[in-house]
Design brief:
three-stranded antiparallel sheet; 5 helices; CNF1/YfiH-like putative cysteine hydrolases; globular; 5 strands; alpha+beta; 12% strand; two-stranded parallel ribbon
């Protein structure tokens, strides 16, 4: 948007909608390594919760996707006060579809982006 339209990141407001939460997004070591290799701050987005447990999503490597998105926006220059995170975990909240919880054939959640031009 910056290159194509001249958008200034400092003028943007961003909302990170419902998504799988950090306690629910258990990944393999190879997925965690992909985030590390991509330059994400692992101390902010990665947690190792010990050996995998018998309960779903217990133990193992976990990635905080909302924080990864927030960090990406901050790195792009969007002011922290202009970023809102919904906090809904689609795996734990049955109001939302979750392929992790229901299987790949479940419904899909839809997000929208709205652009508003404010003349100055």
């Amino acid at each position: 948007m910056e290159d194509r339209y001249g958008t200034k990141p400092s003028d943007l407001f961003a909302a990170i909608g419902p998504c799988i939460g950090p306690e629910s997004f258990q990944v393999g070591e190879e997925v965690a390594a992909l985030f590390k290799d991509a330059g994400f701050p692992m101390d902010r987005i990665w947690t190792f919760m010990g050996p995998k447990g018998k309960k779903p999503m217990s133990g193992g490597h976990h990635i905080n996707l909302p924080e990864a998105c927030r960090w990406t926006l901050l790195e792009a220059g969007v002011p922290e006060e202009n970023i809102q995170v919904s906090g809904f975990d689609t795996y734990r909240d049955s109001s939302f579809y979750s392929a992790r919880r229901e299987g790949i054939e479940c419904g899909r959640n839809i997000n929208a982006i709205k652009f508003t031009y404010l003349a100055r």
